[in-house]
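User: Good morning. I'm curious how pyridoxal-5'-phosphate would be positioned relative to this chain. Could you predict the structure with it bound?
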Amino acid sequence: MTTAKRSKYSSDTKAAQALGAVDDATGGVVPAIHPATTYYRDADNQYRSGRVYGRADNPTYLPAEALLADLEEGEEALLFASGMAAAVAVFQALRPGDHVLAPKVMYWALRQWLLQFATEWGLEVELVDMSSLQDVERQLRPGQTKLIWIESPANPLWGVTDIAGIAALAKPFNVIVAVDSTVATPILCQPLTLGADIVMHSATKYLNGHSDVMAGALVTRKKDEFWARVRNVRKQSGAVLSPFDASQLLRGMRTLALRVRYSSASALQLAEALKDHTEVSQVLYPGLSSAPDHALASEQMKGGFGGMLSLRFRRGAGFAIAVAAHTKLWKRATSLGAVESLIEHRASIEGPDTPVPDDLLRLSVGIESTHDLLEDLYAAIDQAKQSQ
Ligand code: PLP
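Assistant: Good morning! Here's the predicted structure, ligand included:
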C-alpha cells in the first residue's frame, strides 16, 4: 500500500483520500481487506513478511491506523475491538501500585471499570475535578502517579479540560497524559500537539460515524517503552478488530471532516436557540459564550465545539423523559457521533452513582437539517407539556 504520509495537505484532504492510499497489488483506490488469521512461514523457518498470526497484526488495519496517526500528529496508532478495549489497554499497561488520576465526570462505563476492576488489580485510582489545575496538582503524587486520564469535552456535561495545562503539570514528574478525544475528534482538537502523550478514541462514534462498527483506537506521540507495553496488551489480550470492520472504519473516516464540521455548526445553532426556551433551565455546550469554559474551548478547539450538547429541564426528570418520548426525528438511543441524531435520558443508563442530574437529556447532533431537528424538539417539548 502506498500512502502520502504527513503531507502538506489539510486534514480534510488527507481524510477524504485516506492519505491517498493505493493498493500496490491491484492499483485499487480502496485498500484491500485481508481476512487471513495466519501467515505463511518461509522454508528456512523465517517469517519475512513480518506477520505471524492475526491476533498480533492484520494489514487491513494499516491504512486506518496511518490516517489516524497522521490526523492526530502522532507517531503510531493502534486499532482495538472497541473504545473500551482501547482505554483499558492503557491502564493494563500500568503496574500494580501505580496511582492514576481520572475525571469525576467522564464516560461512565470507563469510570465504573476503573473503580470496580482496575482498583482490584492494584491500581490506585483517584477521581478529580479536571477543570481545576490546582485540584490536579494537589492530588498528584510525585513518583507514584503514573497516568492522568482526561476526557475533553467530557460526557455528558461537556466540560473542557485544559490539556496543555495538565501536560505542563505532569511533565516534570514523568506522568503520562492520556486524552479521550472521542467527542472532539482530530478535526477539532489534537491533544498530542498540546503536550499529551496518548490519544484515545471510541472509533464507534465520529471516526466511523454510521452506528455500524464497534472500534477503538489509541495514538501515541512517540513509540516509547510504555507504548510497547500497550501494543503487547493488544496482542496478548486479543482485543483486536475484525478486518471487515477496519475497512468500514476507514470508509467512515473519509467523511469525518465533513460530518464533524456540520454536526458542530448544527449543535451550536441548536444550543443558541434552546438556551432561551422557557422549559429549558440550562444548555450545556462549550460553544455557548456563557459556558464557564468557553474561552478555554475557543483556544483549544479549532473550527467548532463538537456535535454533543445536553439540555436540563425546569420541570424535572419526568418531563425530560417525556420530551424524549415525543421526539419523532431524534432517535431514542445511547451512543453518539453518527449521521443520525440521538437523544437519551442519561441518568437512566448510568444508574444511582451517576454525577449526572436526572433532568438532563443528552443530544448527539447528526447531519440532518438543523431546522428539522429544532422543530422536532420544540414539538416534543410542547407535547410533553400537554401530557403533564
Ligand atoms: N469514550 C467515550 C467518550 C464514549 O462515549 C464511549 C462510548 O460511548 C467510550 C469511550 C467507549 O467506547 P466503545 O463503546 O466503543 O467501547
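The mean pLDDT is 96. Residues 256-274 form the longest helix (19 residues).
Let me know if you'd like a different ligand tried.
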